[in-house]
């Protein structure tokens, strides 16, 4: 067990000192800062002046939650792929893997240490950038989140780490089976692009072909009407096809945890405040999606472990 921590310590040091890691964290921080400033200006412009208007804390924290839901899927996936694409293939190309395995170190110790180090590095990146932006947001408006709101945000950060590790596990597996880092990078980016862009587009096209939403033309003096049942069928098809991607399950987790505070932060007009489900209920609703992310991450780790321990290193 001590050898695992030694490998993890060395790998963690290499990750956090790498230019790739620093650049990714800096870019994510800049994106969150820009989004926060944009939302702040929007809130100030639309903030009601009437005494009975919605309280600023709920509106503001709702916007913070929307920013996290919007940016974290992209950041987590890119972080996971970037850190995992050369985990094994990179060291194999450099010749360091052969030197490490020549020492009295088991292969399972190497792979376990790398996963542990990546988990710590991703956790630090997610928590520092998220807490910094949430803290800055709170300081700008002088609001204090409730204990439940803070718990929801903390849980979302935890599952953001799990989501990033899902992509990391996939990238490590690709790095293990690839002979060159360039191959694993191309495969990793392809998998990320398919999950993030291609499958959602295909899902939308298939749903629109099979069960297009019905919109009734407005009558004179009446607003446009939409057939609720057709929209439900359309949404069900989209979600069924999209459910093969980790992105879909992570988005559902974010919706269940933060949706009560995200209704005013999206591209739609502000809506009346909704009664939020309890944290326990939200976790129960998100349970199947959390389970899928956990299973995919575990299977990717096991596959990488099995391939690496049986691989011949030259």
Question: How does this model look, in words?
Answer:
The chain is mostly helical and 314 residues long. The chain has one domain (2-309). The protein is 77% helix and 1% strand. It has a two-stranded antiparallel ribbon with strand order 1-2. Strand 1 (215-216) and strand 2 form a beta hairpin. It starts with a helix and ends in a 5-residue tail after the last helix.
Rounded mean pLDDT score: 84
How many distinct folded domains?
1
Order of helices and strands: HHHHHHHHEEHHH
End-to-end span in angstroms? 26 Å
Uncertain runs are 49-57, 261-273
Number of separate strands: 2
Strand percentage lies at: under 5%
Sheet with most strands: strand arrangement? 1-2
- Large-scale geometry: globular
Topology at a glance:
Elements: H1 2-17, H2 19-46, H3 56-84, H4 89-94, H5 96-102, H6 107-141, H7 147-177, H8 181-210, E1 215-216, E2 225-226, H9 228-242, H10 246-258, H11 279-309
Antiparallel strand pairs: 1-2
Task: Offer a concise description of the structure.
It is built from eleven helices and two strands, in the order ααααααααββααα. With 314 residues, the chain is mainly alpha-helical. A two-stranded antiparallel ribbon has the order 1-2.
Observed structural traits:
single chain; 314 residues; mainly alpha; two-stranded antiparallel sheet; 11 helices; 2 strands; globular
